[in-house]
Write a structure and sequence with these properties.
Blueprint lengths: L5 H4 L10 H10 L4 E5 L12 H4 L2 H15 L6 E3 L4 H9 L3 E8 H11 L14 E10 L4 E5 L8 E4 H8 L8 E5 L12
């Protein structure tokens, strides 16, 4: 089966910024069981002044808000609440879930640079940059999450719980998290989070 590209599946105006709600609709289209956690339902108007969102925000505002409004009737469960790193670790440790998290890429990269003692050698823009990672493992002995980062050349990375929390709770992320069930389900009640 050939999987269509994002350009084929999304309207042209939706491609400059992929919002988490876009990913939720994509998961729903492929019948993947998930729960969506966010602290803001809709596009947060305070982001309109952020460099990352600025160019596209006014175009996305109506579209994104409409996706949120139609989510429930489309079978998408959006829970307006924060989810802690502890909760994430328990879900991941169960072996039944992975998560896609919206993070501030700078804060994620900055923590790696601090760990490598390279931060004083690397300049660049420190403004918010939205970025998605997959959280697929957790080591309770070291309090580290295993992530897949599409911006990294490595297959996987370990990041501390503190680093993940800082990158996930950064202004601009709304703490968006898609908790994806790895179990095959026959009914909608399979994922009770």
């Amino acid at each position: 089966m050939e999987i269509p590209s994002m350009k084929q599946m999304c309207p042209a105006h939706a491609l400059s910024i992929i919002w988490t709600v876009d990913l939720a609709y994509l998961l729903q289209k492929f019948s993947i069981k998930f729960s969506y956690f966010t602290v803001t339902l809709g596009a947060n108007p305070t982001y309109s002044a952020e460099k990352f969102y600025m160019d596209q925000f006014s175009n996305d505002l109506v579209r994104v808000d409409m996706l949120f409004q139609n989510a429930s009737s489309g079978g998408i469960d959006i829970q307006c609440r924060s989810i802690s790193e502890r909760e994430i670790s328990l879900f991941i440790l169960s072996g039944k879930y992975v998560a896609i998290a919206l993070v501030d890429q700078y804060k994620l990269s900055d923590s790696w640079l601090k760990d490598a003692c390279l931060s004083e050698f690397v300049g660049g823009d420190t403004a918010y940059t939205g970025h998605y990672i997959v959280i697929c493992g957790y080591n309770s002995d070291t309090d580290e999450f295993e992530i897949r980062d599409p911006a990294s050349s490595r297959k996987s990375r370990l990041i501390t719980s503190k680093c993940l929390e800082e990158a996930r709770r950064s202004f601009g992320t709304d703490e968006d998290l898609l908790l994806i069930s790895l179990e095959k389900c026959d009914d909608q009640d399979c994922l009770a989070v």
